[in-house]
Design brief:
disordered C terminus, disordered N terminus, 2 domains, alpha+beta
Length: 224
């Protein structure tokens, strides 16, 4: 079996019935849910190309959505070994994947806004949280921690994502920046949450220290 290819491994009992199909990471060799990895293919010109939509033809090579794993796959030329051929790896491949993931997150957030599922701005977000019509809270990674804390206090069990910066969140709402946003439940929200999880790994960001426990070390996108 080629390492890191599209070959499906059956989900184990420990993974749970909802874990879905799994793939082996090209770099770490760990078998993980497909939603936590990025698929790559070799295009007709022999260039390694990210395939976020998982639709491009060719044998897929999967890498964990973590900057360290991506760099390892590039530095050790693991794509060529997996493809069993000479390939071209763009110098900016890791940054290119991050840029594509940011675009995906902003596009999904924009779709949620146009569907009436998402609002931005401290007062609008606070009102939505108080109404209980919220499934995911977004806080700008470069925003003030005190504002984020005030909103989290209104819905302490709500998943929080502090992965995008204020300009990126704002772009989804047609403004220069937005520090806070909230999204109601729906299929778009699940897709956005999954995309944010992968982006958090690529950016290597950790949650701010928990004010009560003083702990840190989890990704910025957390499900409580």
């Amino acid at each position: 079996m080629m390492m890191g290819t599209d070959t499906v491994r059956s989900g184990s009992a420990a993974a749970g019935p909802t874990a879905g199909p799994e793939r082996r990471c090209l770099a770490t060799r760990a078998v993980r849910p497909k939603a936590s990895l990025i698929r790559f293919v070799v295009d007709p010109d022999g260039v390694v190309t990210p395939d976020l939509d998982e639709r491009l033809p060719g044998r897929g090579m999967w890498v964990s959505a973590e900057r360290g794993a991506m760099k390892q796959a590039v530095d050790k030329r693991l794509f060529g070994r997996a493809a069993r051929r000479n390939v071209t790896i763009p110098d900016d491949l890791v940054d290119r994947v991050e840029t594509l993931m940011v675009r995906r997150c902003v596009e999904l957030l924009g779709l949620a806004r146009r569907a009436g599922l998402a609002v931005a701005g401290f007062e609008k977000v606070r009102a939505r949280l108080r109404s209980g019509d919220a499934a995911l809270l977004l806080a700008a990674a470069d925003g003030a921690a005190d504002g984020r804390g005030k909103l989290r206090a209104l819905a302490p069990e709500l998943p929080v994502a502090a992965v995008l910066d204020a300009a990126e969140i704002g772009g989804a709402f047609g403004r220069d920046h937005a520090v806070h946003a909230v999204i109601a439940a729906g299929a778009l929200t699940e897709r956005l949450h999954s995309a944010l999880d992968r982006l958090a790994g690529l950016r290597g960001r950790e949650t701010a220290a928990d004010e009560e426990t003083g702990t840190a070390g989890h990704r910025q996108t957390t499900r409580h």
